[in-house]
């Protein structure tokens, strides 16, 4: 597997950060789509033809960012095609400059259902705040300026029809002792109106494809012991129950699953 590209630190990163902020703000203010942003390869998707993932077979389509594309195993054959969407075939993507309104609407549905996990995303979010969120997610995925206790993490969105967000996932590249007890490598959410339709199973499967692209041999996925729907999703994706524990800083029984890639 090709060596990981070195992170840009200090002044170099700050200069690049400012350049990206200006570029994203410009795209948002001019109403440009992702195809106008000048970063075409960032919005391409990769179709796995021969997966190295222990014969499991890769999902039909996964969409790594440019950085993840370079980390794919050398024996993974792929072809790059223009980024497309199919209403009947939701696809995984990183957050794009043209998804601000879709993200606000997505967060609002959670809040309306009494689930304030995205309360920091409000209808009043400005273009500058959205640009900062884009940059923060990109920096988090590269492990740049992470707060204490945080690990590199990539955030993905399952979208349909171009920008309608069905769900989102978080792929943590490494684990802390706390994440080993609860949280694991992958966390995911599906918006309330789209639950029970099989989207969580697809979201987890596609995120596992991204984990495979990072070179992880497998992923740890956890859920509350009484979250039977999530347990079924994990098991459908090959999850093997390791054990059930009560985390040191928790009071609920948690199921811990391992999935080989």
Short précis:
With 261 residues, the protein is α+β, with helices and mostly antiparallel strands.
Fraction of residues in H or I helices? 25-40%
What is the CATH-assigned architecture?
A: 3-Layer(aba) Sandwich
Biggest sheet: strands, sense, closure?
4 strands, antiparallel
CATH fold topology: Aminopeptidase
Taking pLDDT < 50 over at least 5 consecutive residues as the criterion, the unreliable ranges are 1-13, 29-86
Global morphology: globular
Multimeric organization? single chain
Secondary structural class? alpha+beta
Cα-atom radius of gyration: 18 Å
User: What's the N-to-C terminus distance?
Assistant: 16 Å
The CATH homologous superfamily name equals Gcn5-related N-acetyltransferase (GNAT)
The strand count comes to 9
How do the SSEs run, as a string of H and E? HEHEEHHEEHEHEHEE
């Amino acid at each position: 597997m090709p060596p990981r590209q070195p992170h840009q630190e200090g002044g170099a990163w700050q200069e690049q950060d400012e350049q990206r902020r200006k570029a994203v703000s410009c795209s948002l203010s001019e109403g440009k789509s992702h195809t106008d942003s000048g970063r075409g390869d960032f919005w391409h998707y990769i179709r796995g033809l021969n997966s190295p993932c222990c014969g499991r077979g890769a999902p039909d389509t996964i969409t790594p960012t440019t950085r993840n594309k370079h980390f794919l195993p050398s024996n993974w054959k792929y072809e790059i095609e223009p980024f497309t969407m199919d209403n009947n075939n939701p696809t995984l993507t990183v957050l794009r400059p043209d998804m601000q309104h879709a993200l606000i609407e997505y967060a609002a549905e959670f809040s309306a259902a009494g689930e304030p996990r995205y309360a920091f995303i409000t209808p009043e979010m400005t273009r500058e705040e959205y640009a900062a969120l884009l940059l923060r997610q990109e920096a988090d995925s590269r492990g740049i300026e992470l707060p204490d206790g945080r690990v590199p993490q990539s955030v993905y969105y399952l979208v349909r029809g171009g920008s309608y967000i069905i769900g989102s996932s978080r792929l943590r590249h490494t684990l802390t002792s706390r994440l080993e007890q609860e949280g694991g490598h992958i966390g995911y959410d599906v918006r309330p109106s789209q639950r029970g339709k099989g989207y969580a199973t697809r979201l987890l499967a596609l995120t596992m494809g991204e984990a495979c692209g990072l070179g992880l041999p497998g992923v740890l996925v956890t859920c509350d012991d009484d979250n039977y729907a999530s347990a079924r999703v994990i098991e459908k994706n090959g999850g093997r129950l390791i054990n059930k524990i009560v985390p040191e800083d928790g009071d609920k029984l948690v199921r811990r699953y391992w999935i080989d890639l």
